[in-house]
Design goal:
Layout: E1 7-15, E2 21-30, E3 33-39, H1 41-55, H2 57-62, H3 80-99, H4 107-117, H5 127-137, E4 145-154, H6 156-159, E5 164-171, E6 175-179, E7 191-194, E8 201-206, E9 209-213, E10 218-222, H7 226-274, H8 291-296
Antiparallel strand pairs: 1-2, 2-3, 4-5, 4-10, 5-6, 6-7, 8-9, 9-10
Helix pairs in contact: 1-4
């Protein structure tokens, strides 16, 4: 039955700019754990090719190797109906691929190929999440992913209002990563927006879109539903707002300190101006009463 399959393709999402491709969502229940991975058709094709090369054409022919990958349409021709019809065929393919028994001398090689395809080691973690964990494991500062998902992203100044389907991730260090693929790691990100540097502001444009503006450019983020857009706008808005408030408070404290110092200095000078002055006279003039002493009372 479909619901009992340990590996199931359940959904898909278009990713990319003008030339989009499809990322298939694969739900995995193995080794007592659940996780999700995203793979495009070419990933299925590479898996199939590598396993057949590992087994050898002769072995596949003699043992009636059954897994058959469904065909692919013309490049870049993405149709919802076509992709929806391909999902059950891919599910059948994965069931047959996981169900067959390879020869003993090839078993570990085939197993490793399947483990990599199903991301058994990282268990569906995005590239940014893996990057943060590797950084912490090397003694770097602890940094976690607060929110991540697919989104349509546009930079009007450079992409001329063309949206690209990207994978975005916001970390606890207030850094927003915009990636081409789910498994792109931090150095591979298309854009790295450090929201804690200041100068960012968030503006709601519609129920499914908001703009993130910096001092030099504007990024537009569009989501499939209102719920995702609201959560993302709140998360990004909080990151920029907290930094603005912190910087404003710091600036205010410096200003208050400088004003207090100026007031203290003015008070000190005023006090010195009000203090009686003492004038000293040495010697005499003409041996008679000193006019200076008479004038100043000394």
């Amino acid at each position: 039955m479909e619901g009992l399959r340990p590996v199931r393709i359940t959904n898909w999402t278009p990713v990319g700019g003008v030339f989009k491709h499809v990322e298939y969502k694969i739900e995995i229940n193995l080794e007592g754990a659940y996780w999700e991975v995203y793979r495009r058709y070419s990933d299925f094709s590479h898996l199939d090719k590598n396993i057949r090369m590992t087994l050898g054409d002769i072995w596949c022919e003699e043992n009636n190797f059954k897994p058959k990958l469904p065909g692919k349409d013309l490049p870049y021709a993405i149709s919802g109906d076509t992709v929806d019809k391909r999902i059950p065929l891919l599910n059948d393919y994965m069931s047959e691929m996981l169900g067959f028994t390879p020869p003993e001398d090839k078993k570990n090689l085939v197993k490793n190929l399947l483990r990599a395809f199903l991301d058994m080691d990282n268990r569906g973690k995005s590239g940014i999440r893996v990057s943060m964990e590797l950084q912490a494991g090397r003694g770097g500062p602890a940094n976690t992913v607060l929110r991540e998902s697919f989104a349509l992203v546009s930079r009007p100044t450079s992409f001329n209002l063309i949206y690209q389907a990207c994978f975005i991730a916001l970390t606890s260090h207030k850094v927003l990563y915009v990636c081409s693929k789910v498994y792109d790691r931090a150095p591979q990100a298309k854009h790295v927006l450090a929201l804690d540097t200041g100068g960012f502001s968030v503006t709601a444009v519609s129920q499914t879109r908001f703009d993130l503006k910096s001092l030099t450019e504007t990024f537009q983020f569009c989501f499939i539903n209102e719920n995702d857009a609201a959560h993302w706008m709140r998360a990004v808005g909080d990151a920029t707002l907290q930094q603005t408030m912190a910087r404003t408070t710091e600036a205010s404290r410096r200003s208050d300190m400088q004003r207090a110092q100026a007031e203290n200095e003015a008070t000190r000078k005023a006090a010195e101006g009000a203090r009686p002055q003492v004038h000293e006279y040495h010697g005499s003039v003409g041996g008679t009463t000193d006019q200076l002493s008479t004038q100043f009372g000394v």
